[in-house]
Amino acid sequence: MDTVSELIKNLADQHGRSRYNLLPILQGVVEQEKYLSESSMIEIAKELEIPASDVYGTATFYSFLEYKKMGKYIIRVCKTITCSMKGKNQVLLAIEDMLKIKVGETTLDGTFSLLQTNCLGFCHKAPAMLINNDVFTDLTPEKVREVLSQYLSKKQEGGQNGN
Ligand code: FES
């Protein structure tokens, strides 16, 4: 059995095998694999004995369940109203300009993916974004460039250590 099949079996053992347990299983796969491949979705459907279309429908409904291969760091910029009014577009442009990708794309080296998301619950500190599970608030183009530079130097250090 490959590691994804094993992971799905373990998650089904842990959460249960009914369609009500679908979401935590999908989240578990994304946490480990960073995205839901077509074969993972088919495997989950088999394990839970539900139609693959149900798994696909749920996966595409939630914006936090990626079904495309994503970069090591997933940037999610809030696109909801408060962040939009407080300069989200300038922040997004600064990211696109620095990483040379558009929303929905991944850098060629697979380090960053750029997405937009709905309200992150930090409207009082808008604009806000997530990089994986870390929250960044009160963003400006300058601040976002600083944050990304830190991630880029982390990546370079990781590369030097062979990670
Ligand atoms: S509107 Fe962006 S965090 Fe709420």
Quick take:
Helix 6 (88-99) packs parallel to helix 7 (141-160). The chain has 163 residues and is of the alpha+beta class. The chain has helices spanning 3-15, 22-33, 38-48, 52-61, 81-85, 88-99, 141-160; strands at residues 73-78, 112-117, 129-131, 134-136.
Q: How would you characterize the overall build of this protein?
A:
- It is a single chain.
- This protein has 163 residues and is of the alpha+beta class.
- The protein has 2 domains: 3-61, no CATH class; 73-160, Glutaredoxin (3-Layer(aba) Sandwich), CATH 3.40.30.
- It has 7 helices and 4 strands; from the N terminus they run H-H-H-H-E-H-H-E-E-E-H.
- Strand 3 (129-131) and strand 4 form a beta hairpin.
- It starts with a helix and ends with a helix.
- Residues 78, 80-83, 119-123, 126, 128 line the site of FE2/S2 (inorganic) cluster.
Largest sheet: 4 strands, mixed
Order of helices and strands: HHHHEHHEEEH
| CATH homologous superfamily (4th level) name of the largest domain | Glutaredoxin
- The CATH class of the largest domain is Alpha Beta
Q: How many alpha or pi helices?
A: 7
Any ligands, ions or cofactors bound here, and which? FE2/S2 (inorganic) cluster
Please name the CATH topology of the largest domain: Glutaredoxin
Structural class: alpha+beta
Second rung of CATH, namely the architecture of the largest domain: 3-Layer(aba) Sandwich
Arithmetic mean pLDDT: 89
